[in-house]
Amino acid sequence: MNVVIDRRPLWVIILVKGFRYLVLASLGIATYALSQFEPPQGLTQEGLRAITIFALSIILWATHLLPLAITSLLAIALIALMGVMSSQEVYSLFGNSAIFFIMGALILAAGMLKTGLSSRLALIIITLFGKNSRSLVLGIFLTSAFLSFWMPEHAVAAMMFPIVLDIARGLELKPMQSLYAKALFIALAWGAIIGGVATFLGGARTPLAIGILQETSGKGIGFFEWMLAVVPIVVILLFVAYLILAIFFNISSEDISRARELIREKKIELGRMTYAEWMVGLIMTITVLLWMFCSESLGLANIALISVVALFVFKLVTWKDMEEYVNWGIILMYGGAICLGYAITDSGAALWAGNIMIGSWATSSMAMVVIFAVLAIVLTEGVSNTAIVAILLPLGISLSDNYGIDPKLVTYVVAVPAGLAFMLPMGTPPTAIALSSGYLKVKDLLIHGLILKIAAIIIFILMVTYYWPIIGMKVS
Amino acid sequence: MTMKNILLVLSTTRQSPKTIELALERAMNEGARLTGLFILDSNIADSIFEKLTDSGFIGDKPSQQLHSSILLEYRQRGMVKLEETKEMAAKKGVSFEAIIKEGDFFNECLEEINKSKADLVILTRKKRSSLSRFIFGSYVENIKKGVDCEVLIVDE
User: Is residue A12 pLDDT above 90, yes or no?
Assistant: First the structure.
């Protein structure tokens, strides 16, 4: 074993090694000190404490000084310890139905991954489209998007990555140089991201938003209701994103016969569809139909949990599979975010902070919608999109009364743009996954992602203005 | 008189054509044996894995599958790079041996330097600011200070 000799000056070593602890200690002291101050006018003592915990969580979520889920746990403990809410109230919020819905959706997605159904679907769709170089990019793009309607977008990106990598390798595309390779990986990432906002299943930030909406306003949004409002936006975004790929990347001149051969070989390797795949497919289809048409009467979480039980009844998955395919940290993250959202809304802190930070800018209800949408779509590039929902939504819901906006509409306005992180790897895993291929430079995502981002915000605002009123969702 | 050993160190993130060219020139001029060591920097794949687990909440199995895919890709690229270097060496009449290792750049590099008893080590230094090097240190500089043989650093 080699001994690493650090040859930097001692003070630099101490500073670098101790910096994290120093920042954490300073944040702890600042949180305590701020919570002891006399609250400003319009804010209660509980409100002031809630807002300091909120600020601390934002800093920790943005800087990753602690893992996201651990920051959520810290928020839960501080809310109870600092007397913002009683321990009983805080921990009971952890039993929110949105959390059980997320749990169920993740287990169902794990079933699709474990049985190989998701890979089979991906190969089928890519084969359908992959007739020439242009349609192969379209195939990868639409496959990622379509699968993200029904599975978490990051799971889709992770599952699609080896397929796209094999295609790029098979076509002998040059890393960092081939425009076609760049288009393939960007199609994979953007498809998953855009598809991920279409339903509750593409990213758990949407169920989180619904959970915060339920806890703070008592209202809910149905599965089909969400799709009705969001899928048309997704379709237009997919079209625009594909146009950007077609215009800026040379996607029509590559000979893809080797890629078609590779996909065919992969399909042969998969063999015939197994019993487990058929059953998971059937359970998933029934579940989605129930979510779409019976969620009001049966409840989203109840449907999800019964479907999970069905997976185990038919021995399609084991608990070991769940441990391997599901990252349970997500449950802690969302439980904490819902508690925090409730605490800052209930204590009046969200309304107070919203008025100070956004109230003076938002001169009309439409202005408020635009501000929240722009904030969400911009901030999501630097901070995890789930954290953005946890940060912005309580503020938006608290302000909605002042502007005569339905809190449900605010939920869409925050949750949809928060999912559209096209430019940087920090916001969402699909871009990080695409970048890790080594075929792309950050610059490629940055420039073309910015173009798509600007288009996305324009499309979103136009749809809010002209499409949503048609389906009964008026801004005011 | 024994033949001089030159060790050319490349890695996932350090593979400048300038360095390869220089190593081949030196080996040719000095009639030395050239060993091309390509280190698959597992830290890069590990950091992606951690990021996906902590922020992306991807389960262990999909993360591991992704990790393996990334490392496999890096390995294949390393092999291609070494193959290219071997062809260039053959054209110049230089004796060339290729080695691929996976792990931490610093540790793997030191281990191979000691094992191969290299007389000269040629490394690429990534483009970074002096301040960043001062605060976070530099593996390449540490290697230079940590070995007895001559070390030639080529800036990217």
Answer: no
Q: For A326-364, where are the alpha helices, taking DSSP H only?
A: 329-346, 349-354
Q: Which of A436, A437, A440 to mutate to test the interface with B (most CBs of B within 10 A)?
A: A436
Residue in chain A closest to B113 (alpha carbons) equals A2
Q: Tens of pLDDT along B9-62? A: 999 888 888 999 999 999 999 889 999 999 988 777 777 777 777 766 788 888
Return the exposure string of B49-67: e unless at least 16 CB atoms fall within 10 Å of the residue's CB, then b. Answer: bebbbbbbbbbebbbebbb
Evaluate if residue B2 carries a pLDDT over 70.
Answer: no
Cα angle vertex A191, ends A261, A276, to 5°?
A: 65
Q: Could you tell me which of A163, A170, A161 has the C-alpha nearest to residue A259? A: A170
Q: How many domains are contained in chain A?
A: 1
Could you tell me which residues are beta bridge partners of residue A476?
A: none
Chain A residues with beta carbon closer than 8 angstroms to that of B56: 154, 428-429, 432
CATH number at residue B64: 3.40.50.12370
The total of structural domains in chain B comes to 1
Q: Return the amino acid letter for A45.
A: Q
CA distance A271 to A109: 21
Whether residues A432 and B51 touch (CB distance < 8 A) is answered with yes
Q: Residue B100 belongs to what domain range?
A: 5-155
Contact at CB, A429 and B58, closer than 8 angstroms: yes
What was the pLDDT predicted at A3? Answer: 59
Whole-number Å distance between alpha carbons of B108 and A463: 56
User: pLDDT value at position A1?
Assistant: 52
Predicted model pTM:
0.87
* CA angle (B79 as vertex; B95, A431 as ends), nearest 5: 150
**B51 to chain A: which residues are within 8 Å by CB?**
425, 429, 432
Cβ–Cβ < 8 Å for A322, A107: yes
Full domain range(s) for residue A261:
45-471
How does pLDDT run across A137-179, given as a tens digit for each residue?
Answer: 999 999 999 999 999 998 899 899 999 998 998 888 888 889 9
List the single residue in A158, A169, A425 with the smallest CB-CB distance to B58.
A158
% of chain A residues with pLDDT over 90: 65
